[in-house]
User: Fold these one by one.
Assistant:
Number 1:
Amino acid sequence: MQEYDILHSKGIQIGEVISDFEVFTIEGERKRISDYFDKPILLETGSISCGMFAGQMNDMEELAKENKDFTFLILYVREAHPGSKITPHNTIDLKCHLANQLKEVEHVNRTIIVDDLEGSFHNMLGALPNMVFIIDRGGKIVFKSNWNKANNVSAALNTYRGQRNIIDQQWTFLPMPSLKTEHKVFKRAGWDAAWDLIIALPQLIYLHIIEGICMKYPRLCKQ
């Protein structure tokens, strides 16, 4: 929780243009985000230890099949809930290895790119574990959601396709994955990771509700 500020996101805002960050393929090859600008991009952040990300997986894979006019990218970021089996990344090789593992265990067909070890791209985006963006071919952010929810993403894709313009950010309820999903994620990360989530969850839910109030009444939450 100390790694990001839910109420006062420092991340890039709708209408701004992203810097041309260097990323890695899951094979460790260096790329730049501009290498994917042949189509508008639907970018999601995630990691193999993120239950929210896993909970949206099937729906997001289906959206990728249905929307071939967009490039669907997963940016592999720091572990949301590292444990004794899946530890925090201390090398880029480990980060790429876990991205490969994600592709295999979740049967991912979308393109996975890997942030650098310091999380430079992720921090610029806002550092939350499961964000989603639509980025136009010039690198401009036209849609941003701090928490991914596939049905909202589907609506945003259709809206952007129709108007080719920026879409106002809307607050969405924090997606809560099923117990089955959480069990799967913590079994592979290590059960100690579940304890960390239990400790953090009340604060996360509280701040998420306050975030919604701040989006509706921004003057109440000025720093």
Note: The two ends are 18 Å apart (CA to CA).
Number 2:
Amino acid sequence: MFEHWPYLGVFIVLLAAGLGSPIPEDIPLLTGGYLCAADLAQLRWMIPVGIAGVLAGDLCLFTFARILGHRIVEYPLTRRLVNPSRLVLAESLFARHGVKIIFAGRFLPGLRPMIFAASGVLKVPYRTFLAVNGMAACISVPIVVMLGMFFGNHIEQIQGRFRTATHVIVLAAATALLIIGGIYLHKRRRYLATKVELERGIDAAAIERVVSTSTDPGDATDPADSSESDALTDSQLTRFRQ
């Protein structure tokens, strides 16, 4: 019976972390790896338990956000995880990148709750959320658990290095996004400038065509016809006077 306690303990702590407990997810996962190194648990079971615990916590937050909508920021329990300004930021990221941001959110500890809450507020289907987040968890969880297993005696150092690596990844991703955004804006500006010049050329050509049509010599009145008309009018006036 007691051989199942390590798995249950890791699962409960991961679930609590997903529900707002001030415990980072990497601590129970690293602890699970350390328990495997100490022969108190088996890696083949610890990794699935870790994935299940991570997804269970994420699914609880996602479900709360899906039910409450933007009112999720009004409750003390969820407000610690989701503040209004970051929720708006997560929604804007989601609007630009779609479900891809759910995958990236698994590797962004600071924005992860807001991204998952935004997914719920925006009514992402459960199947889509679990599939995308599950793929990301299948990458991150085994890595952290195995780090705890192979370097269990230095778990505090591993935790610090893991956070440092996460920050570096986030910084690199932000820099890449800024570069891509700058290139996109530059190309967009050039496209708009070209479009404006093209429209001006079309308008100028249309105006010139209208002007030339209105001043066509074929439409002008012949002076001879005008004189004849004037002569006819004078003869009619003479007869009228007689």
Note: The two ends are 137 Å apart (CA to CA).
Number 3:
Amino acid sequence: MMAKKKDEIEYVKNGKRVDGRKVDELRPLKIEVGVIDRADGSAYVEWGQNKVLAAVYGPREALPKHIQNPYKALVNCQYRMATFSVPDRKNPRPGRREIEISKVCSEALAKSIFIERFPNTKIDVFVQILDSNAGTRVAGLIAASVALADAGIPMRDLVAATGVGKAGGEIILDLNKEEEDAPDAVDIPLAILPGTEEIVLLQMDGLLTKEEWKKSIELGIKGCKQVYEVQKEALRKKYGEAEKETAKAREPSAKETKPKKEEKVN
């Protein structure tokens, strides 16, 4: 067995990763719903260092008319990274990576929506990455899915997503940037409809053995279901509070409920 070099990073040591997480532990995840008033639906996600905004507009008439589909709505997701989202200033023009991620996210979201109910229309989803540190496509996807639910668009299920892969010979959940840059790194963005475990996004950068692949998918699905709970809780928080306010507004005031004193007759 070859001895490790002094400058070689141990990505997992005594069950802990470089950032202190366990191999099956997600980075801290926070989701807020309804953050953009002018959008039909919106969400903000903080996932580790990643910060993502998503806004939904539609369904609305698809224009120009030649793009209309008489059988279903078109789902158009635009994934963009802000120029300041990475250490070196990014070119503001969308690159090949952003175009590719926009396409796969559009397809994943379309699987979750009852698009057949809205013929000749389009649903526009805008995802903006404000700060980036690995896993931005899955962070953007969960933000977009929550924004669609916030817009009241009928859905089969939310899209829950996470990254899974390998670093330092270990299969780990939710890779950060340091782990993504490991010499043997394998990165697998994974998204599912949790109710049925239908996979709606699956990509892989690298090579795995059959056993590693099986372990990765099992760990990834487990991670997606953890994300799903956070998504649902964020929606409950917004709409649960709204229901309480509505119920409170409907309650009669103390003056209205107080019985009137009987007037004395002389």
Note: The mean pLDDT is 91.
